[in-house]
Every structure is written in structure tokens, then in C-alpha cells.
Amino acid sequence: MTGNGAEPLLQLEGVNTYYGPIHILSDSNLYVGEGELVCLLGGNASGKSTTLKTILGLVRPRTGTVTFAGEDVTNVPTSHRIKRGLAIVPENRRLFGPMTVLENLEMGSYLRPKADLKEEFERVYTLFPLLYERRAQLAGTLSGGEQQMVAMGRALMSQPRLLLMDEPSMGLAPVLVERSFEIIQQVHESGVAMLIVEQNANVSLSIADRGYVLSTGRIVLEGKASELIENEDLRKAYLGR
């Protein structure tokens, strides 16, 4: 049981990750409870992407454990973790541009049994009505904000228990950043736990339950989002005030 009473859906304990001889993550401890929205903040080269890769199994920690949905997944392949309920909205969306919106959404369900996906499509189209209108349009012709909707919809097609988001504000105009985080909040309110990796601390903490701050591979701050947003060191480093 985690400190706020939520069951730990994802837990990293004492994780040390290396790229060859280079020590990237140092004794990393992090958790996301069932139904929580947690943000992981940090600048460039802080270890944010390596944390995501470690959670997904693209990088294996040298020591420490990764637990997901009650199972030690430290040494199991990425595909198994996805089947267990992990999904990611990657940095810069990474859609299949020459494919339609509908085809991109279908790609999100490729690891699921060939069952009727009507319920998943209804859920995605209820969250993002625009995607139903644009379902025959090529994904590469959409605006940045619309592509973000497709990327999130694609991830939701796998019925994830935990949705990872890598720098959702990157490459978006300021007005679209706000809209993007409204969408993230909508998805979270629909019952999906989320871990958002971001440099934009202000907007992330405004919708998160809790947050962690990474600096050169170490978690240097953690706590409730409402407390972190008032933290003097964090405000100077990330909030510009």
C-alpha cells in the first residue's frame, strides 16, 4: 500500500540503470497508484527518458526491481508489459502519417485478441469526437493538437491500466499545450492511471496528484503536486518565479 492509500500499480525500487559504464539512474524509487496521475519532471539529460525505457523494458536495470500490476516485470519483455496493461504516448506523437486516423487507432489494439472493438472505439470517439469526424483523414495532415488526440486514442485502444506520456507539450504552440493537458485530464478522469514525463512543470503539476523531480539520474524532490508547486527550489528551477 502506498502512502496515500492507493494500491501501487507501478513501482520502481532501488533501480540503477546504466548505458555501458555510464550510470544513468541512481537508486530510483517511484510509484504510481491505481487511478493516480503522477508527473515526472526534469530538464534535458536528467534521466526522464531512461526512466520510461526502464518501465517499458527497453532498458533493463542492473540492480533494483520494476513491479507492475503486482508482478515483478524487471526481466520480462516489453510485449508482456503491454499485454499486462502498459501503454505509451511517445514523444512527438509518432503517428503513422500515411495511414488514416481509423487505421492508426486500430494499430493500438494489435496485441489484443481479434475481438469486437466497438466498445473501445466508442470510448475513444466519446473522449475525442473530432476523431470520428476525421477518421478517414490521413493522420499526417492533422494539426499538432489533433495528432495528440490520435496518439492518445491509439494508446487507449489497448485498454491500458497505466498510460505513460513522454513530453506531451513538446512541439505544441502554447495555446495547444493548454488544450492538450485538458485532454490528459479528461482521460485521467475516465479512470486511467497516468505517468507524465515533462519539462513543463507548471502545467503538469496543475493537474497531477503527485510529482517527482529528477536531476542527473536522481530523484531529488517528491510529494503532492499542490506542495511541489509551492516549493521554493522547484519554483526557481522550473517555474520561473
Summarize the helices and strands and which ones pair or pack.
Layout: E1 8-19, E2 22-33, E3 37-41, H1 48-56, E4 63-68, E5 71-72, H2 78-84, E6 86-89, H3 101-107, H4 118-127, H5 129-133, H6 144-156, E7 162-166, H7 174-189, E8 193-198, H8 201-207, E9 210-215, E10 218-224, H9 225-228, H10 232-239
Summary of the model, kept short:
The chain has a domain at about 1-85 and about 165-175 and about 195-240: P-loop containing nucleotide triphosphate hydrolases (Rossmann fold, 3-Layer(aba) Sandwich), CATH 3.40.50. It is built from ten helices and ten strands. It has helices at about 50-55, 80-85, 100-105, 120-125, 130-135, 145-155, 175-190, 200-205, 225-230, 230-240, and strands at about 10-20, 20-35, 35-40, 65-70, 70, 85-90, 160-165, 195-200, 210-215, 220-225.
- As a percent range, the share of strand residues is 25-35%
Nearest-integer average pLDDT: 85
Largest sheet: 6 strands, mixed
Shape: globular
Whole-number radius of gyration? 17 Å
CATH architectural grouping of the domain at 1-85 and 163-173 and 193-241: 3-Layer(aba) Sandwich
CATH topology of the domain at 1-85 and 163-173 and 193-241: Rossmann fold
| Secondary structure tally: strands | 10
Strand order of the biggest β-sheet: 6-7-8-3-9-10
Tally of contiguous helical segments: 10
CATH superfamily of the domain at 1-85 and 163-173 and 193-241: P-loop containing nucleotide triphosphate hydrolases
> Under the CATH scheme, which class of the domain at 1-85 and 163-173 and 193-241?
Alpha Beta
The helix/strand class is: alpha/beta
Order of helices and strands: EEEHEEHEHHHHEHEHEEHH
- Range of helix content: 25-40%
Report the uncertain regions. Answer: none
Q: For the record, give the distance between the C-alpha atoms at the N and C termini, rounded to a whole number.
A: 35 Å
